[in-house]
Each structure stands twice: as C-alpha cells, then as structure tokens.
Batch of 2 targets.
Target 1
Amino acid sequence: MLTDLPNLLTIARIAAIPLLVALAAQHTGWGDGCACIVFALAAITDWLDGYLARRQRMLSEFGRMLDPIADKLLVTAALVLLAGSGRLSTPGLYAALLILMREILVSGLREYLAGREIGLPVTRLAKYKTAAQMVALFLLLAGDDGGAWLTGLRLPVEYVGEALLWAAALLTLFTGWGYLRAGLRIATQPPASRSDPAPR
C-alpha cells in the first residue's frame, strides 16, 4: 500500500515542504526560483497521483486519507511562508486568510459528513479555484527576483500572483458557500432522507 506509486507521490508532496521552506528562506533570486520549481513539481503530483490511482486501479483508503491532507499542508505552508516573510501585501493577506478559512471549513464538513458515510464531491468550480490558487502561489514564491533568475527578465510576477490569489479567494467564497449549504442541508434533514447532494 505505502509503496504504490500514487501513494509515494503523495508522500513526496509532503516531503517537499521542508525543502520548499529552506529554499525560500535564502531570500535570494536563485532560492526563490528553486522554491517555486519545487512547489510546481509538488503541485503536479497532486494531479498525477490521482490520475495514476484511477488508471492503474490503485485506489486505497490510505491514499484517500492522505491526498487531501498533503494538498492542504502544501497550500498552507506556502501561504504562511509568504505571509511570514512579508511577501504579501495587506490585500494579499486578506486573500490568504479567506483561502485558509475555506480549507478549514471544508475539512470540518468532510469530517462531519464522513461520520454519516456521506461524501462531499468536488465541484468543477472548486477545481478552477485550485488551479488559480496553485498558479498564484507558484508566481508569489518566485517573486520578482526569482522570476528574473528563471527567465532573465524583470517582470511584475508578484502583482500577477496577487491578482490570481484574489481570483482564487473569490472562487473560494463561492465554493465554500456551496459546500456549507450542502452540509447544512444534510445536517437539518431527518436521518432517513439524507442523501449525497453535490453543491452547485
């Protein structure tokens, strides 16, 4: 189970977090550039482990448990790292706060519904939110210095990253409200009539 390739990729995503932090802590162009590359590779494993698990029929309870944990650890580590190092503006901090609050909300709802053997399906809008969020964090971890080190050009990477972070935060509000509404609908239904509604 632990040695299945999808699970190894999930574990590698968690193991990449200390390396990401260590590189970003250098406060240099090459450190930021390498940090964003590590983040990008870790983010790719998020898609790849699920794809391989479905394609090779390696779905497991261990993978179902660990995959969302790895995702949230990676995103939370990146956001806290950026905030703690002063690399987010005040509006950017508000966007990061919205994203973190939504992650906590959805995690709590999933735990509550799991106790009733009800799943909370991922919506298409939530997938768009994740994509915008990952690209935003990639750009913000690179920063202007890391972007210049990677491309040789001085580009407004941080402005684009914060704009995408806010786009992800706005999508977070919509998707979070959808998940909360679905959870409340289930919680207020009599036990016999509970089903698995997908938030819209």
Target 2
Amino acid sequence: MKRVGSTPPPSPTVLAARFAAFYGGLFLVLGIYLPYFPLWLEAHGFSDAAIGLVLAIPAWLRIATTPGLAVLADRQGRRRRMVLVLAALTLLSFASLDLAAGFAAIVLLHTFAAIVHQPQMPLVEGLAVRAAERHGFAYGRARLWGSLAFVAANLGGGALIGAYGPAWVLHLIVLGALLTLVAAWLLPASVEATRRAASAWEGGRPLALLRRPDFLLLLAAGAAIQGSHAVYYAYSALDWSRAGLSETLVGALWALGVLAEVVLFWFGRPLIDRFGPLRLLALAGAAGLVRWPLTGLTGDPLLLAPIQLLHALTFGAAHLGALTWLARSVPDAQAGSAQAVYATAVGSIGLGSLMFAAGWLYTAFGSGAYFAMALTSGLGMVAAIGLRRLARTS
C-alpha cells in the first residue's frame, strides 16, 4: 500500500490548473454568499441586527471547529480527503437550507453550512502554497482564478438576482457548492506533505504555535485588517441598494474590487520579492485607514468605483503577505493547523466579532459604521509593523 505523497504529482501546469479549479468553485459560492446572502435573509424577514447575528454565530463556533478539523487532517496526513468530505457536506447543507422554513431552521442550517464550508480554504491553502514552492508554479496565479470566479458571481449573480428575486441567491450557492465538490475530487492526493517526526519548533503539538510571539502578532494583524471588512461584507449591498443602486450595479462595484485584487495576485511573486510579506501586510492596514472612511461618506457609484480599487490592498496584500509568511515560517507537518488557526483568528475572532459589532453599529450609525472599521484596520497596521520589527531583531 502506497503512502500519501509517494505518487508523483502532475506537471506544474496541471497541478496549478487543479488548484485553480478548486478556488474557482469555492469562490463562486463566496461571490454569491458575501454580497447577496443578507438580501436573502432580509427577504425572509430578518432585521438588520438579526442579519449581523446570523452571520456572526458560525464565525464564533468556528473558533473551535476549524482548528479541530485541521488538526485532525494534519495528524492523519489526509487534508485532501477532509476537504472532499467538507465539500460534500457544504452542498447538502446549502441545498437543505433552500427548503428550510422558520427562523430557527434557517439559523441552524446556515450555521452548519458555514462551519463546514470555511475550513476548506485553509486546508487547501496549506497544500497550494507549499505545492507552488516545491513544484515551480506561482501560487498567486492559481489563486486569482478564485478571484475571477468571485467577480463572475458578483456580476452574473447580481443580474440574475435582480431579474428573478432573492430566491436565486441559494440556487447559485448550491451550483457553486456542486462545482467545488467536483474540483475537490480532482485535487491530487500526491500533494499531501510527507509525514515526519515533529521538530523541536513545533513540539509535536499544534497549539505550540500559540507560544510564538511572532505568530501571535500575525494573528492580531490579520484579524484586525481582514476583520475591518465586516461592515462592507454584511451591509454594503443593503446600504447601496437603499441608496438607489441596482443589484447589478452593486455586483459591479464588488467585482471591481476583486478585479483589483486579481491584478495584485498576478504580480504577487515580484511584489513579495520586492517588499516582503510583512511590509505588504502593514500596507494593507494603512490602506484601510483610507478606504473605509471614504466608503462611509458616499453612495455615489462614480466615487465608490475608485475607492473599491483599494480592495487590492486591504484584502489582497494582507492575504498574500500573511500566507507567504506562514509558508516560510511554519513546518510542513503543521501547515494545515497553522492555516486553520490563522483563518480562525481572521474569520471568527476578528471578522466574526466585528460582524456582530457591525450589526449594532450599522443599526445605530448607518454608513458611519465604516469609521470604526478604519480604526480597526489601523490597529492591524500597528501589529504588522511590530511583527516586522520583531522579525528583524530575532
């Protein structure tokens, strides 16, 4: 019986294409879910505050579930199999949500769907970044296909939802979940890291990561910078729709931000070589200090369009910088766990907590809630600068 990792991987081009297909499916779901799921909830009678709560509940629960699933996958050396199971559960749970009736049923099914969907990203990121380093393809150019799928979902989804109503939000999410499952099946088992004895650095325990000051600073920076998108993710579609923008135009604005992110990912390798991952992370925090106040001050699409280009920095630079630092600093045997802990800090502790706060802030202050996000992004910038100084002195 062959061990995982003993089968030679496909060529770099084929390997990159398979990861690109997975990112495409995964982000097709996200490209509908993030801007339009609040519209589906609103159509089912959820208030602004309730929408924030519904989106925050799974984020809090993922504090335990995402690292737990990643640790299990790392110990078994079967991250691909875990991704395949999670992709199947995601499809089933979202399909069931389309049939749900009542507040409690919707909350429970949505919570489960979100819990099983989110861990797929860090598990595959750990495989993709290391496969790119070992087999000679650019991670950013595989990852950008996820961003392009996100754009297609924003634009196509906005047009379909505008034409046929909010029910199409879940129809499109289920389609994306099906494509993700197919792509997960195509991921090669040969990219699994070879299992080996634990190093002194990792101590054989995933939580050993949390004893490292540099890793903790990375978590703080990522959670604050990515968490500062909470008002944007939860309420931009509602806010802009109430300002008179059509669903198609809302989707176009979201797509514009992601297209800017695609350009950054295309030039990701030279940018990392030129600036380094931690300088990119700090730059992302600085960009949030500019982006969020400007977003809160206008509902004019002609002004929002150039502001949306800053998504390349607030999201793209932060993501690329953090993942590159992890790939260079964390041993193979902990790759999935490290990615999961980071994703949990960003998506649950950071974005989840701020999403809950965003519900209260948006209810109380409307678009003025973006100013609180600017402060959060600034705190993330400070943490990134602290991490860079620590790295230079260690």
